[in-house]
Write a structure and sequence with these properties.
It contains 15 helices and eight strands. The protein is α/β, with parallel strands linked by helices and 424 residues long. An eight-stranded mixed beta sheet has the order 3-2-1-4-7-6-8-5, sandwiched between helices.
């Protein structure tokens, strides 16, 4: 038996193993997403008394260009003005972020720490400040400086708190989906995640995953659990800590936060690489205890978290199988061995994009996919393939903790956004 034949046998064995694994994972997510194909009717915010007081925290590092827009957005919330306060955390700023925020009449706290950098550390610092204040709040809402917030956001969070929900993630939308093919595909990915993953988790009684911005924490959660989430993906870290302590994260589909998506592949690459570094840091620290919890307590919530932690790995396996399939097909053709790429490989790719475009269909029903954004769908497969090297680099650099700031330059407010949505 020649060396080429041995390579083919070993490749086929490995391929079958990973194909079965991938098909199982895709089947799991297809089953989960099925519970969000039809939206359930929820109680109106008008049915709940306005009784919860909120602290609105905006973490900002050199955000002088976009900070006025989010302050204006927060001041325009349809909620009694005496029931919430706005706090800007000017974190290690070297520009005029703090002064600009003060000019807009909000409370500004400046933080300088050359060692404990990053949003997670800034929030930890601010939570301690809040606990020392005379003013007391029922909930704390977290935002990024580039965000715009829907006017009903606090009404929705008040409703969630009245329902007894202590941690709630809002709908992560995009304020610039039509700018470039990168911002477009990034937006599509978030829309699909919102509708096909986060919403069904909420319906099924599982725990949603915090998205880094636009979420609410009941003050008692901060007091009981603490924060101490300071890795590069502090949102995922805290999500996992909550599940291990038997808390769930709920979902508010109508509490919308508009986020600025990167405009170029370079910007997106840096941001997603940071996400993957933090993700694999969390895999190393939380997968085993989460898996033990799933087995010992027969917890579907913990099992779902394990599946979420495996998502980047499955993306790499799928991408590498595609590349390896083409390579082996080429080798076989050159060596004169008539062998096709394989029906199973093609089936996995079809399943992957079926799930993806199915998700796009349902977010289109919600009115998110506008004509200008539809063009970006043609480049969605290429965008997804860029995840393969990003995930690999994130794994290699998982122990590096240096925070890489994403520059925000898209200066628009809610009125501009409404005009763009009508046109788009």
């Amino acid at each position: 038996m020649g060396s080429t034949e041995w390579y083919n046998i070993l490749f086929d064995i490995g391929k079958i193993f990973f194909q079965v694994l991938l098909v199982g994972i895709f089947a799991y997510y297809l089953l989960i997403s099925a519970f969000a194909w039809r939206r359930k009717k929820e109680a109106s915010t008008e049915e709940f008394p306005i009784k919860n007081r909120f602290a609105m925290l905006v973490a900002a590092h050199n955000e002088e260009a976009v900070i006025p827009a989010i302050i204006k957005s927060l001041k325009a919330l349809k909620y009694p003005k005496n029931m919430y306060d706005i706090f800007i955390i000017a974190d290690n700023c070297t520009d005029t972020t703090a002064n600009v925020a003060k000019e807009h009449g909000v409370k500004v706290f400046e933080r300088f720490d050359s060692v404990k950098k990053g949003k997670g550390n800034a929030l930890e610092w601010m939570f301690k400040k809040l606990s020392d204040m005379k003013e007391k709040y029922d909930g704390v809402c977290i935002f990024d400086a580039d965000n715009l917030i829907s006017p009903n956001f606090l009404l929705e969070m008040n409703k969630q708190m009245c329902l007894g929900h202590k941690v709630v993630q809002g709908y992560l939308d995009s304020k610039n989906p039509s700018d470039t093919w990168i911002s477009g595909n990034n937006s599509i990915a978030f829309w699909i995640s919102n509708r096909m993953l986060q919403l069904p988790r909420y319906y099924l009684g599982l725990s949603c995953i915090l998205g880094g911005t636009g979420f609410m924490l009941a003050t008692e959660i901060i007091e009981k659990v603490g924060w101490k989430a300071t890795c590069l993906t502090e949102d995922l870290e805290f999500s996992l800590k909550l599940v291990l302590k038997n808390y769930k994260i709920y979902w508010a589909h109508d509490a919308v936060i508009y986020d600025e998506k990167p405009l170029t592949l370079k910007q997106s690459w840096r941001q997603r690489k940071r996400w993957m570094q933090g993700h694999f840091d969390c895999v190393g620290r939380f997968f085993v205890p989460m898996f033990k919890k799933a087995l010992k307590e027969k917890s579907l919530t913990a099992f779902d978290c394990c599946m979420y932690l495996l998502q980047p790995i499955t993306a790499v396996i799928n991408g590498l199988l595609m590349v390896a399939g083409f390579v082996f097909l080429t080798v076989n053709i050159i060596s004169g061995v008539a062998k096709t790429w394989g029906f199973a490989n093609i089936s996995i790719i079809v399943l992957t994009y079926l799930l993806m475009y199915l998700g796009t269909f349902f977010v289109a029903i919600e009115g998110k996919v506008k004509p200008k954004v539809l063009f970006h769908l043609f480049l969605l497969p290429f965008y997804n393939l860029t995840w393969v090297p990003i995930v690999i680099l994130g794994f290699i650099n998982r122990d590096k903790k240096d925070w890489v700031h994403t520059l925000h330059t898209r200066v628009i407010d809610m009125s501009d956004l409404q005009k763009l949505e009508k046109v788009g």
